[in-house]
Specification:
Layout (H helix, E strand, L loop, with lengths): L2 E4 H14 L5 E7 L2 E8 L14 H12 L4 E8 L9 H6 L6 E6 L2 E8 L2 E5 L1 E4 L2
Parallel strand pairs: 1-3, 1-8, 4-5
Antiparallel strand pairs: 2-3, 2-4, 5-6, 6-7
């Protein structure tokens, strides 16, 4: 399955990663089945934001509440690796929940997408779409 990613969502992730450096950026991916329509930045509340990310719990609560009220679905999460490749780190692998959500990892202006599955992270191909 190829993921559809709105061009403005991809651009938002790259911009947020550049702005947050040398810390990790993070946020939520919103959309529908097989589609990312929005990348919503969130505060990184990790104790060591230069090496880890933790999405602000209030941003998660607000997004899930909006989803229940008919808003966009939380389909995944994004974060950046300011000094590493755009692939899951050992920490990412250890903290992943296997919930099937999509993860986007930004590094050096590149974004790669992954599915957090039962057997770990699986790479996803994607196509940029307008809108």
């Amino acid at each position: 399955m190829e993921l559809e990613v709105a061009r403005h969502a991809l651009e938002a992730m790259v911009a947020e990663a550049a702005q947050a450096a040398p810390n990790e950026a993070c946020g939520l991916l919103l959309g529908g089945e097989g589609r990312i329509e929005e990348a919503r930045p969130a505060a990184n509340v990790a104790l060591d934001p230069a090496r880890h990310f933790e999405i602000d719990p209030q941003a998660l609560i607000d997004a899930h509440r909006a989803e229940r009220g008919g808003g966009p679905k939380v389909v995944g999460y994004f974060h950046s690796h300011p000094s590493g490749p755009p692939e899951p780190s050992e920490t990412d692998r250890a903290e992943a929940s296997g919930d099937g959500k999509t993860w986007a990892i930004v590094a050096n202006g590149l974004v790669r997408f992954w599915r957090d599955g039962d057997d770990g992270f699986e790479p996803l191909s994607y196509a940029l779409v307008d809108g």
